[in-house]
Amino acid sequence: MNRPTNSIQSPTNCSPSTPFTPKPHLKLHPQFPSKHQKQNLPITILCSSSSSSSSQTPKPLTVKAILRAIPDWADGIKERRMQQKRSLYNHEKWVQHRSSLRHIRHLLSSLSSRVILSLIPPVITFTSVAALIATYNTAVCLNWLPEFFPVLRASSLPYQLTAPALALLLVFRTEASYSRFEEGRKAWTKVIAGANDFARQVIVSIEGSSDVSLKKALLQYIMAFPVALKCHVIYGSDIGSDLQNLLEADDLGIVLSSDHRPRCIIEFISQTLRLLNLEDTKKHVLESKISCFHEGIGVCEQLMGIPIPLSYTRLTSRFLVLWHLTLPIILWDDCNWIVVPATFISAASLFCIEEVGVLIEEPFPMLALDELCGLVQKNVEEALSTEKLIRAQLLAKRRKPQPNEHSPNGWPSPKSSD
């Protein structure tokens, strides 16, 4: 009888680059394999892993990918810096802000500025164009090219006429962006002030022991509204982690399932006010405080959804691009190879102004909203902790015996007879 042998077939889908290294000695079983045994299981698994790794090979580089590498890198840095949390200024920061060494400090931190890093693609592009034009004109002037190639030069009169128009365009563009920033700052000032005033009214108005739980919940909703509005207007915010310490789990689940989280919290506030055992006048006063929340939502959504007219932004961008594409031709007769650094300085300066206008056009990432929301929570908690102490102090003053009253002429008034 012939002795059965186990045939081991080499896998066909294993590439030579697979990290698997077979052992030199394989232990073969002499008995017949059972029906439930899989003979080549280890080799099959390893080969399947190699096929999955081969599917994750990097994509080949294309010309488009190479050209977009630097812009994508600059945009990535800019977007990451946009999501950084801002901080409110205190006395130490103001002293540093107006320090006489601020110019040196700002110059040394230029390479870490998101505005300057975002200018790398356009500045490099226009400086390279200037270098190409200078090289071409030099080759023509040195007769390295045939005579029918002209020197690229032009009169500077059109630039002298259009320079004021470009300056006014940049000024108006930046001023329009700053007005949006100022409007967003004022809207959030009203929201924060309204939340503090609303919480103060709730603490003063609700005194009954039957409404203690509703009072606590209402204050939580008031503190949660600025946080929800902040997450509503800033991309990439994690509203779940921001509200987990302010709302209970059931309330947080309802808020997270809502499409419009700030309005959902306003509905919580309205329903809580209806359940309170208060006089109608006090209820009306408290309900009137909700209007500042609605106004804040409207202003913030308007600023987020309606940018500066796109035709204005596109006109500014096209004007700057055409200006710097033709700038080396205009300056060639006067500057020759100095057109390269001149174009670099002009592009860095003018595009920097335009970039600042674009950045502050969306105002909310520029504001210290996280600290403002934390400030509301801190103020409410401090008001709750000092409420009983202040009331006890005032009651003690009320029960304190009054000193002897004096007459207007300075003599003590006579004691009243019993």
Automatic annotation (TrEMBL):
One GO cellular component, as annotated: membrane
Signal peptide from the UniProt entry: none
Region (Disordered): 1-34, 396-418
Alphabetical GO biological process terms: regulation of photosynthesis, light reaction
Membrane topology value: Multi-pass membrane protein
Compositional bias annotation for Polar residues: 1-20
Family annotation (Pfam families): Bestrophin_2
Main localization of the protein described in the UniProt heading: membrane
Keywords for the protein's UniProt record, in alphabetical order: Ion transport, Membrane, Transmembrane, Transmembrane helix, Transport
Compartments, record wording: Membrane
Protein name: Bestrophin/UPF0187
Phylogenetic classification of the source organism: Eukaryota, Viridiplantae, Streptophyta, Embryophyta, Tracheophyta
